[in-house]
Amino acid sequence: MSIEQKLAVLIDGDNIPSKYVRQMMQEVTKYGNPTIKRIYGDWTQPHLTKWKNLLLENAIIPIQQYAYTVGKNATDSAMIIDAMDILYSGKVDGFCLVSSDSDFTRLATRLREAGMTVIGIGEKKTPEPFVVACNRFIFLEILSSEEESGKKKSSPESGANATVDKLTPMDIRFIASTISDVADEDGWAFLGDVGSLLQKKRPSFDSRNYGFQKLTPLINSIDRFEIEPRQSSKDRFKLIYVKDKKAK
């Protein structure tokens, strides 16, 4: 997704803590221009008070939605209806759905069916169906950890990031199989292609989840893989290729 593409950012105010708002909005700008920014909730409720001071600072428009009946989430319904109205308006190229609620799974699927790119943002408790329904899913805890550590590069050894996941044998096999999918006859794969395919296979895959700012140092930390920088024929930048040492 180009950073010039227009995004609609729709936030489930009942489901997302306000403490994440600054890091969240900074993250969104990496994927597009947030031309529509709305947050949904019942603003008569005290639990949304912390959001109120942040809305003007971030140019987010609050949408009032009363809870008409007990046990029914009217906020979700309002957000879904708005998303479909925005879709049919043709004013955006993609959506950023900010929630940890699985109720938005069908919405994400429907938007993708319409050709929209869907970025999901939520906490690690987000149910897997919603995560995989998005093109990409970003965990808020990782953004918060970056802020707290002064946005310095993290490593699993540093201990700076308490929410870092450990690379499991399953994770390593997942990376290895993806390298194999795009590798040439000699087993080498362009790391850019590997990263794109990892994202398509697992929308929540993010090197930051494992304490690395980029994919290259993550791959380089795993003994199973070999990295080779190659000079580009078109410019002075080097291209990074990776190979699975265990591949036949």
Please give a structural write-up.
There is one protein chain. The protein is built from 9 helices and 9 strands. It has helices spanning 21-28, 49-55, 74-89, 105-113, 128-133, 140-148, 169-182, 191-201, 215-220; strands at residues 6-12, 33-41, 61-64, 94-98, 117-122, 136-139, 188-190, 225-231, 238-244. It has 248 residues and is an alpha/beta fold. The two termini are 35 Å apart. Strands 3-2-1-4-5-6 form a 6-stranded parallel sheet. A 3-stranded antiparallel sheet has the order 7-9-8. The chain is 35% helix and 21% strand. α7 (169-182) crosses α8.
Name a few traits of the molecule:
9 helices, six-stranded parallel beta sheet, 248 residues, elongated, three-stranded antiparallel beta sheet, 21% strand, alpha/beta
How big is the Rg? 20 Å
| Helical coverage, percent range | 25-40%
Structural class: alpha/beta
Overall shape: elongated
How far apart, in Å, are the first and last alpha carbons? Answer: 35 Å
Proportion of β residues? 15-25%
Main sheet summary: 6 strands, parallel
Strand line-up across the major sheet: 3-2-1-4-5-6
How many runs of DSSP E, i.e. beta strands? 9
Low-confidence residue ranges? 153-162
Q: Helix tally?
A: 9
Mean pLDDT: 86
